[in-house]
Amino acid sequence: MVRGVVPRQPAKTGRHEGRRSVPRGQQSRGPSRQARGGAAAFGPGRAQVQPAAKSVASKPKGYNPVAPERVQEILRRLDQQYPGVTCALTHRSAWELLVATILSAQSTDVNVNRVTPGLFEKYPSVQDFAALEPEDLQPDVRSTGFFRNKSKSVVGAAKKIVSDFGGQVPDNMDDLLSLPGVARKTANVVLGTWFGKNEGVVVDTHVQRISRRLELTRNEDPKKIEQDLMPIIPREKWTLFAHQIIWHGRRLCMARSPKCAECPLENLCHAADKTWSTVEIHKSAKP
């Protein structure tokens, strides 16, 4: 080195010397531009750096998130973690389960379970509910939220069950959907949990969120999510799968700060919001 000459240092902006050696607008669009990502762009002896984001977000060639072997492994691990789980709503009959499920909308099962014992003690039968007006029920269910609409639905369902179905909760999808306040999710809960009929997959907020995290669906609409899940989950496991995912969402895979380090599905999950991961992250795997 010539005495008194100090090598130029990289600019603080991160631009290396020589990057603008050719006036703007006259740069070649040929091979020299293609070399910018290679060693030549960094000078002799400097290691080539690959962008980390692409390697993390890229998916393995041929990766299929709904491949039968992957889905079966997810189900196997859920069976090990949550064997024999069932609906968390306290109930002793199809009618009590129907009421509890209606009340659980936009509420928690824990809160509903605080309300229903006193409610069913006060009104023991569906006929007792049918004799009410919605305004009579509102004070009893106020703490579950949206109590006016819920009171209207419960009383309306009771009146129709008494008048059209002899006081018995119907055990088929079409008749259940004819009841006020009963949509497909509620019908699936009653049919699967009480009657043991797998007519569909319950898609609540947990199933919706975790199914998207696991890349079992890319849809956000519950009806479309159910249609995506039904072909890949064996029919005999539709009800159990939903219960397992719901329990999983409450214990480990929470919406905020999921406990990924404790999750039995961790190395099968590429969710974009994981808090810890041993596998690559997929940007499209969003809850």
Which secondary structure elements does this structure contain, and how are they paired or packed?
Blueprint lengths: L30 H4 L17 H6 L10 H14 L12 H10 L5 H14 L3 H5 L3 H8 L5 H18 L8 H5 L6 H11 L10 H9 L8 H8 L8 H14 L36
Given this structure, which CATH class of the domain at 64-85 and 199-287 is correct?
Mainly Alpha
Overall 3D shape = elongated
Question: What characterizes the major β-sheet?
Answer: none
Which structural class do you get from the secondary structure elements? mainly alpha
Helicity range of the residues?
40-55%
Which terms summarize this structure?
287 residues; mainly alpha; Endonuclease Iii, domain 2; 13 helices; elongated; disordered N terminus
